[in-house]
């Protein structure tokens, strides 16, 4: 028995010390070796230590018939350890990567059970970290990817923790043998069609035969990369603080940055700052697909550049770059009559509209711009709406969804634009709360 195996419970407690005040600890319990050891360790520690309430979650993917027996196995293990078990049955969406689709379904189930001030514990260990590093290296990952699996990260409203990352698979096997634990052997783990299994069974044994410390060295490199990524994050925050200036259209509620401070940075610092900013919003492109950013950045003033990404689009307007997703990418449906202007009006796919102050005489209608609109302004006469929008520097992507208030064929007001949004003399104003849901923010 190795010295490291003897210290496994103590090391686990040390790694989890900052999280002892969490409301609950959920254990991701597949029934395999790693999660079985983690569950057993925590159940034993709970008898002598004051720990948050423990529970286990088993995700049943339904991808292979043999897996139908796994929930019963997990239930018997949890019953013996007196740990409550939740079984979550998920649908794995078909796609190019079955591994990724299953992972996405699994983590969606984890998010569902992990509430605020709760943590989900998973059993990944140092060998898994080495596999992750090697797998990402072969895919050409950057510093963020090569930092491997983080020890902790946000998960929905709670956190995901990997408290066994400094233990080896051999440590876990020795603990399981000592305590005569039984676990599930997933047949798919032998299928070397899956890249990680190929690395585990074919590549890493060759590496460790030549360099016995290879796994420890790779895990250490992942730690160095994690530290480097932290420094890049701090640099990004410095650069983003220069670009996160207030603008005239902050009321849109859209993420935006001032372009000029970004343009002063080197290309590498631009990519670093934007990656940091975009990471919570969308999947990021690899290094070879940043030409969309360069086209947007370098476009002439009268161009309408758009950089399309996985979960939305980056637009350029008014000296700023804007993140659009969800409802902002769909033209709002027509609205029509406003029967009771005293009540706020929900606009399909376009937020909420309200009139404040003395109500104008009706009947009133809500429309969107089609072109050719004219507005009669006190002291200025008839003015083209297009020119008025240009004078107000309204971003082009907003113009087609700005609510317009009509009485018959007369354009009375344009929501939210000072001087155009109502009547000072009559004491009313048209106020628009743009769409805030389905923005793609996480």
From TrEMBL:
InterPro entries: Lysidine-tRNA-synth_C, Rossmann-like_a/b/a_fold, TilS/TtcA_N, tRNA_Ile_lys_synt, tRNA_Ile_lys_synt_N, tRNA_Ile_lys_synt_subst-bd. Its EC number is 6.3.4.19. The keyword ATP-binding applies. Pfam families: ATP_bind_3, TilS, TilS_C. GO terms for biological process: tRNA modification. It comes from the Bacteria. ATP binds at residues 30-35. One of its GO terms (molecular function) is ATP binding. It catalyses: cytidine(34) in tRNA(Ile2) + L-lysine + ATP = lysidine(34) in tRNA(Ile2) + AMP + diphosphate + H(+). It is found in: Cytoplasm. Keywords: ATP-binding, Cytoplasm, Ligase, Nucleotide-binding, tRNA processing. GO terms for cellular component: cytoplasm. Residues 364-432 form the Lysidine-tRNA(Ile) synthetase C-terminal domain. The N-terminal region contains the highly conserved SGGXDS motif, predicted to be a P-loop motif involved in ATP binding. Ligates lysine onto the cytidine present at position 34 of the AUA codon-specific tRNA(Ile) that contains the anticodon CAU, in an ATP-dependent manner. Cytidine is converted to lysidine, thus changing the amino acid specificity of the tRNA from methionine to isoleucine. Belongs to the tRNA(Ile)-lysidine synthase family. This is tRNA(Ile)-lysidine synthase. It comes from Pseudomonas moorei. The gene is tilS.
